[in-house]
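S1.2 Input.
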Amino acid sequence: MPTPPPTGPLVTRGSLAAELRALGVEAGEILLVHSSLRSLGWVSGGPVAVVRALLDVLGPDGTLVVPTQSADLSDPALWSRPPVPEQWWETIRATLPAYDPRITPARGVGVIPETVRTWPGALRSAHPHTSFAALGPRAAQITDGHAPDCRLGERSPLARLEQLGARVLLLGAGYDSCTSFHLAEYRIDGPLTEVGRPAPGGGWEVVTEVSISFDRFDELGHDFERDRPVARGRAGAADVRLFTVADAVAYAERWLPLHRPR
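S1.3 Output.
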């Protein structure tokens, strides 16, 4: 049976850069990108072309930031995709490698963040589960000091992105990927939870964190887009949205207690 031809449109580094500029992405800004490569169409050059296009638009004074989460460094008792047998749990806890920002791969956030993570000059924050990687002159300012017991709160890159006036680009990704909404969860006294993970010096550790969830983030995003200024457009075949981190956090702080009390 012959292999079917690729589905389009054909996306290039240049065409993507032009569409991002048309949307309003500006040279010199700080941009937090949540992305889906597949949603764009057929990209000549794959994720490398996408990263190059983003850097082309941002220019030498801009900073590109992506989530590089590694939630698989967690308690195997909670794994569900797929689950593992209970008799394996203790062995996994004893042998799971601890987080190393230099080599631990990103998982569950797509191939574009992993490409940024391994890009020459990229810096990565220190949280074992919810790190961010950044490229550009503000990278160190954004990634330094990510507290090990603060996934997405005041001592995380999200708070610095808010302070620095960064914007969010949803590049084929939905609002359920919008990490900025999680910063609001820290500000509304969300419940606490215990989180297990491999300890940096060996063994297993349990830390207390704010409980976070993307439940109903799609509804939150719908209302946010209805009520607040969000630039919308297309890049290749993907829907694209652009808005400020600060606006998203402020809106979620008001919306979550009313619509998703926890």
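S1.4 Remarks. The chain has a mean pLDDT of 94.
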